[in-house]
Automatic annotation (TrEMBL):
GO terms of molecular function: ATP binding; kinase activity; thiamine diphosphokinase activity
Domain Thiamin pyrophosphokinase-like substrate-binding: 148-210
Class of the enzyme per the UniProt entry, highest EC level: transferase
Annotated InterPro entries: Thi_PPkinase (IPR006282), Thi_PPkinase-like_C (IPR049442), TPK (IPR053149), TPK_catalytic (IPR007371), TPK_catalytic_sf (IPR036759)
EC number(s) from the headed UniProt entry: 2.7.6.2
One example of a Gene Ontology biological process annotation: thiamine metabolic process
Domain of life according to the entry: Bacteria
Keywords carried by this UniProt record: ATP-binding, Kinase, Nucleotide-binding, Transferase
Pfam families: Thi_PPkinase_C, TPK_catalytic
Protein's name according to its UniProt entry: Thiamine diphosphokinase
Domain Thiamin pyrophosphokinase catalytic: 22-127
Amino acid sequence: MGKSVAIIGNGLFPKKEYPLYLLSQADYIICCDGAFNSYMRYSASYRNGRLPDMIVGDMDSLSPASQKKYQDIIVRYSEQETNDQTKAFNYAIDHFKDISDIFFLASTGKREDHTIGNISLLMEYARERDLQSMGINIQMVSDFATIFPVTDSTEIECGQGRKISIITPDNSLKIHSEGLKWPLDNVVFDNWWKATLNRATEDTVKLEFSHKSIAIIILD
């Protein structure tokens, strides 16, 4: 089994047991620069002051004093074509060769535009990096949801009764579903809400894509 990476964003820092457990068990921790202070407050209380393995970003949110103090673990990217979450993700993929799981924590909340952008990027990561062939799973976990991308037909072991939403930007995609209260067979994905707020009627939800595409699954 491979190792795990926790990437800490500058959204709402988690308080609930599951995301904090993922953070406590992470083999590697990367902070986006704006998240460093929030992480260090957590670390001082729960991790005996453990530093992140890397601080990644353009450093516009990190004080000059902190930049000097922690210069040995700072990876600075000056380009503005990608956000800090993407910079941290790319660093993890390119430098940690023994990983099997990447968990994005504190990536949502505070700002709706950042939340939408960060969630949508999961689909880009899965497609551009072909994570399935690399054997790497990615999830965005908050106090409220677990979110992950899919690029083809899949089976989701989510448990009967669990709330589930499916979002895709591909309006040509058709999805045959099994195990959902409201089947997706006739859904036209021409807006984000079209397959949200569903519920699993079986322990396993099956989704059959008409073609390879991108989508995200949101579980409560």
